[in-house]
Amino acid sequence: MSHNYLSGQIPSKLNRIAFGLTVAFAANYSAAVHAQSEAVQLEEVVVTATKRAQSIQDVPLAITALSSETLDRAGIVDITSLERVAPSFHLNTTDSNTGGVTLRVRGVGTSGNNIGFESSVGVFIDGIFVPRPGGALNDLLDVERIEILRGPQGTLFGRNTSAGALVIHTKRPDLNEFGYFGSLTGGNYDLFAGQAGINVPIIEGTLGMKIAASYRERDGFVDGAFGGDSYGRDREAIDLDLLWDMGDAGDLRIKASYAESQDECCLAVWHNDSDYIVNEVVPYVDPALGLGEGAGVPPSLVGRDALEDGKAVDDDFENPARGTRFSLEYNVETGIGDLTYLFGYSDGSALSDRQDYVQTDAYTTGATPQAKALNPERPYRSWNGTDTDNFSHEIRLRGLAFNDRLDWMVGAYYAEEDVDQRYTLTFLEQMQTAWSVGAFGQPEFNELNYVSGGRDAAGDFNAPNAQQSTESWSIFTHNVFSVTDKFDLTIGLRYVDESKDGSMSEQTTGQHNACHGSFENYQVTVPAYADNPGRLQAAVATNCWIFTAPFYDPDDPDSFYVPYVDNPATAAWVDLIPRPFDRKFEDDELVYTIKGSYIINEDTNVYAGFTHGFKSGGFNLDVSSASGGTDPRFDSEIIDAYEIGLKSIFWEGRALANVAVFYQDLEDFQVLEFDGIRRVTYNVPKAESWGVELESQAQFTESFGMNLGVTYVEAEYPDDCSTFDPNSSDFQSAILPLCGVELTNAPEWAAILGANYQSTVFNGGWDFFANASARYESERRTGTMPTERPNVAGLTTEAEVRAAVDAAVALRGDVEDSNTKVDLRLGLLHRDSNVSIELWGTNIFDERTKFSTFSIPLRGFSGDRARGQFVQEPRLYGLTVRKVF
Q1: In which domain, by residue range, is 517 found?
Q2: Which of 534, 653, 675, 812 has the smallest set of CB atoms within 10 Å of its CB?
């Protein structure tokens, strides 16, 4: 069985790779043939991808390196826009900038918004691992370069790098020269941003200090229904950086950072409403119910026009956050090698206050005005928030042996992280009325109130508390042996041990009138629903929604649910109720890499390698994860990756082409799905990613250069991603729709074409510069699941299961069409002062696209669900004045 949701696929994998390589060769050959012959050369790019300073052309690894000038000229202000300059990289956010960030490299990344899930792409700032990618979302401040390492990087970078690593290096203080830098930017959506920094050599040549700060404020580009907006920016940060050169005793760098934000993130734009609700229910809804136009969903705020116009149905999504970070780096030469010690500490807190996705007063999450107005005595603020706290130590020793033929490195790493998430979900006055209409198709009859025995749900709430403590340690070695003058062999090993303690509990005794009433009224409702017990169970599950229901603790003899557990009429209902848990997860793995690189000539080398990677499992920290006695843990993810590459500089140093062909096989791939009711985790037994990448540059004259990056990737779940045998102990019917489809947000093609021009004007005192780039991507899936869950109840054969999977109804809005986005920057640079004036625009043709698609909670039915989408930036433009140090 294969769902071919994306078109234009070439039949053979080998043909596709060959085609990509042909395109790569043709592009660079054409550049060489038609170029002028002026004596200009590309600048050497030095990276530290192997924890050693090397030319990017000498590293047997696929790397995208971005200098500070490249970032400035491309308008990259934070990591969310890196995909504009790196075709193999993708980042998306969902309903929270701090918690809903997903990074992908080569189509591989961990999906979903759940604090128990960790990224497949590790983020490092000045060598320190950032456990949560959202912690790196503030403006890039005083950055020297960014390295995007493609493919698993666990042997050297450790935790959560099974798909790749995003490595950010900031500029070190200058010990000899006083200087300063700054910028001011204004733009549409009332953008105002600024950065400033000062460098002071306190003791010349010995001790230096740098202070830098940033501020960004911008209105949102999605308008809420009641006057607010979303996807706005309100961020500020400050860094203090000290560098001490102690001579023979080494050098010490200490850096402290503080950042906070008041982002309003992120409203969903409705892709579609439920056809049945719109056509068969809404016309008959009694206006006296007060649900408003479209029973809370005005038709003008749904569909393509809503996306193009940036309109949302609801309002009031806020995501304030703050964080501190401290790092220490010590380097010293010893008698046996170069010693490096790194210490990192960070803590952060974030809030997430939001409404439901409709205009009715159905529910609210967090300390919103609606919740506080309904129950002003409740301490909502203390019941809500996510706090993180982590520290790490790393020590490395590197040296040379065997007449410098062996470059060896050994090291050890230790880290701890604590995560504490608290939240409340409160039912508002219209919950039962609105969901009797939207989820049960009742235009007049308040079915939910009937099931609860007349108990009103207004004010019902619960306050779950999810906690996780992680301890990770590893020892590693990474060695490069020069077998001959032209052939190097790299062998890296890392033993990783991770343990996690995860728990779910209630912070307080909530209010549960409608839920309690639904159980207590069962003697009335069970006979009334004798012909449709599934509908009754759905109604009980709605009054006892997983986020508001009281927990069931099987060890508590006084639990409210005790009389109902063994009652045949109600036992199945109890399985839908959240349960507390306190569990432990432990795993260890030996990750390793072996690579060979061969120098063909002084400008060209080839390499090939294999890497075995690992990402630890853990806990689904959604309140639903242990309901029915389900184990909330998920397994570790394993990746085996193969890569062959060529790196070449040609045309007398004026052009380069780097090509990589890769295949990545993933086992127990971690997937998180929000099904409109709860967040569910899966380990998909098989997934894969394979393809070809090209990165090329050419400097045609001193003034004019171009770059081309192309990625062709097939990131997919194979047809046999899981067993279809319903009699197998490994049978998981929920994930079978994934077999044969692409991974989420993994376009088959992504390409970036850029051009830059700079020349002297005004009698030599000024330079005019222009940068233009276009990014193309083919269509991509934006949801986790492509279809509804197949109905496999009672099926006994594989053939029956496959037929049920094929018959599952496709979820709407799953595919984002192919698109091209164009960026442009024009500027004047005053040579003597290093001050520039820059006019810029991103996505100048205003392509409106989405990050992800999901099912709106409790609106519509299986096969006819309302769907929402989190959207990407529209056209932005502005003016920047910049002073470079």
Answers
A1: 363-381+421-593
A2: 534
